[in-house]
Design goal:
The protein is α+β, with helices and mostly antiparallel strands.
Length: 171
């Protein structure tokens, strides 16, 4: 058993992914070779069983780390403001808030009255059309700032958790 933080677990997963990529590239370049008729072939060093076992062990470690991390994220509680939430709940909520924030960002950039582009320029009696906002821009601005603050508060809580909360992984 090894005590690790979420941040360290993610670094281990990245390292395992890099190692797996290396072994897959080695296998791809060594599993076949080309030889001309009548020439002595240059056979690359390749041991299918050893490479397969190495890849299997990398995958085994990754599964353990991801599962342990998922359990910790589902069960550990973090204080965000005056609320206690699990890490996975925070991640879901942050995604929801980020989506809403993107919509509000678009809305807050609209002018109260904007001329619409007319594609009927050839028409002599083209009447200009305008697009009007149908909401209170101050309310949108306040909601945008509130949601931005909520996301930031959650991110800070997650950052603190990722660096300090220890859990055990059997790797």
């Amino acid at each position: 058993m090894m005590k690790i933080t979420s941040a360290y677990a993610n670094k281990l997963l990245k390292s395992l992914a890099d190692e797996k990529s290396y072994w897959e590239a080695q296998e791809a370049s060594s599993r076949t070779y080309v030889a001309a008729v009548g020439e002595e072939p240059v056979i690359p060093k390749y041991d299918y069983s050893a490479v397969s076992e190495t890849l299997k062990e990398i995958d085994r470690k990754a599964v353990i780390i991801k599962h342990t991390l998922n359990l910790a994220n589902a069960t550990a509680k973090i204080r965000v403001g005056d609320t206690e939430m699990s890490v996975d709940s925070i991640l879901v909520r942050m995604a929801q808030l980020s989506s809403r924030k993107a919509t509000l960002d678009t809305m807050r950039k609209y002018l109260p009255k904007m001329r619409e582009s007319s594609h009927a320029f050839s028409s002599r009696n083209a009447v200009p059309e305008y697009r009007y906002t149908n909401y209170d821009p101050e309310l949108v601005k306040r909601d945008y700032e509130c949601i931005s603050g909520e996301i930031m508060e959650m991110q800070i809580a997650l950052d603190r958790y990722n660096q300090t909360f220890l859990f055990e992984a059997d790797i």
